């Protein structure tokens, strides 16, 4: 009998108000391949689906109205909906969060690192200022893909330095909302795809 059968993963509230199931993971960048039991992921995990954390920093809750010439008119809730649909097709659960508070991002990165679950991180302005986020990534061993909607290197000089890039697995920037999807593709490359 499968050890995961009948278990319901815990849930977390996303910015869009939808409840997002939590699970666990590990693979290409942390994704685990299905184990022998019931074709599910390792029995030690709470869910048969791997999890990727999508963490968003300060002012990203204002997307859609904040400087549309730079960030576009797509809202964070719309980015989440698009990413959730893509993740579902790949057989991946997303934990999607946003906070204007640095400590929340540090805690969430540590949580993901402790579980061996990768992170798509748009730290917003904290990218350029936060030694604490740098240390959380390094200290927890979290595998992070840094993303930005805009090309930060084409903007003000103070945005050219990232405290995250040196501890990230990779960096994707300048493609608007597609930056998130490219990060998801990178994290799931080579992972088993969900059958339709």
Would you mind describing this structure in some detail?
The structure is a single chain. By secondary structure, this protein is of the alpha/beta class. It has a domain at 89-153 and 167-174: Rossmann fold (3-Layer(aba) Sandwich), CATH 3.40.50. It has five helices and seven strands, in the order βββααβαβαββα. It has helices at residues 68-71, 76-90, 102-115, 131-140, 178-188; strands spanning 11-13, 19-21, 51-56, 93-98, 119-122, 144-148, 170-173. It has a five-stranded parallel beta sheet with strand order 4-3-5-6-7, sandwiched between helices. A two-stranded antiparallel ribbon has the order 1-2. Strand 1 (11-13) and strand 2 (19-21) form a beta hairpin. Helix 2 runs parallel beside helix 5 (178-188) and helix 3 (102-115) runs parallel beside helix 4 (131-140). The radius of gyration is 16 Å and the shape is globular. The protein starts with 10 loop residues before the first strand and ends in an 8-residue tail after the last helix.
